[in-house]
Design brief:
Layout lengths: L15 H26 L4 H14 L14 H5 L2 H10 L3 H25 L10 H11 L8 H20 L6 H17 L4 H15 L6 H21 L2 H11 L8 H22 L6 H20 L4 H19 L6 H22 L5 H10 L5 E5 L9 H4 L3 E2 L7 H9 L4 H21 L3 E5 L3 H5 L2 H6 L3 E7 L2 E6 L1
Helix pairs in contact: 1-5, 1-6, 4-5, 5-6, 5-7, 6-14, 7-8, 7-9, 7-13, 7-14, 8-10, 9-13, 12-13, 12-14, 12-15, 13-14, 14-15, 18-19
Amino acid sequence: MSVSALPTPSQGTAGLLPKMSLPALAAAALALLAIVIQSLWMPVDADVSWLITVCERVLGGDRLYENIIEVNPPASVWLYMPLVWTAARLGLRPEAVIVGAFVVGALASTTATVRLAASLGDDETPGWLAPALAFATLVLPMGLFAEREHAALLLALPILAALATIAEGKATPRGSTVLSGIGAGLVIVLKPPFALAILAPAVWAAVKQRSVRPLLPAFAAACMVCAMYALAVAALAPAYFDLLPVLEQTYLRMHEVWWKLIIGVLLFPAISAGLVAVLRPPRIPPLAVAWSLGALGFTAAALVQAKNYPNHWLPGAALAALAVAAALSVSETEKDRRRLVGAGLILLVAMELHATAIRPDPALASAIEQAVPPAPTIMALSTELDTGHPVTRNVGGQWVGSRASLFTAAGARFVGLKHPQAAALYRDDVHAFALDVARHRPELILVNLAEKPQLMAEPEIRSAMAAYHPSRRADGVELWLRR
């Protein structure tokens, strides 16, 4: 569906094209801006870069969760697998294909959402809606572009618009309802806690209509998607079930300090709620309600995950800001309050942009390019994903380790090495690192300086690193070259 298909509230033919062209032109300009940002300034982040590497390794013959270890469920890999495969067939960089696919997805999400919102009434689809949606899906993610949470946001926007139309008792084609259910299933497959972002507005729609019947086709479609995914995991990635006890003992128990988690996750939604409280519109548009409840669900999901990573709060923050914009569209609200809250919304968006503007330090890539020949084989001595990613791909290197970092060891340390199971998992992760170094003999090992004393105290790691020597430092990382 083309960007020019974006509708406007105008319903006649007279003067329609000029009115349609402005939102469409704004959306296209934002798409171009997103491409420029991702191409020239802010490459895909560590999570996406690592998952691209996992996809390439699996396509090259490695077995997921056996030869290449990923702590997330298979959906995290399968989301990118078709795009990485396509890039390989076309001879393109996977990052470019993924960014392009997400740009197209954002425009499709915007178009679908605006079309669904049009059934709510003219006042629900003002000229700002398409540009606002395009901004939230194309520009706001910045350094979190193409993350799983970004994908969830793209899927959630038309789903929430469909729920708003159901809540208002508007005629919703069965096909749209079923597609919304399929989308909801995909959101849940991406991360099960995201079900909260769908559940809250679905309950609101059911309560408003005093019936669950309008939701049943979507519910059935969502259940079908989740069931098919479960069968696919059992058939195509059974080793994931063997990894689950390890994750339960380590990664799933890791969490941010609670007060930091609460502040980090709730900050932007709380500011949004405060702005609406100051605005005091005489009525709350259905879209604002649906987006607010979606934001509440995504925020709850971020709290459940308890990591306080920026990508975890992205969809909740984006939906909350959009809800404020929808509340601002109520023309009956007192003008001075609208101006004040409008200024507050601009400030809020600027804060969110600052928080999502995550860019790797180019000094590390430069140091690597100076220290080793082109296309080096690389590993990292670190418990942090971003020590080795995305810099490995950014310098044209080849990751040869079986895992992204000593993440299981970090989880075991968090739980406490006094626990026998945690201690055993810690030793296993340390041994896997040493085995990878001996087996693959990478040309370069990136050492996290903050963790170096603790990790190098391990005899097995110290023995593996004896064949290497430190060369130079950049961005908190020490480069160790093979002797």
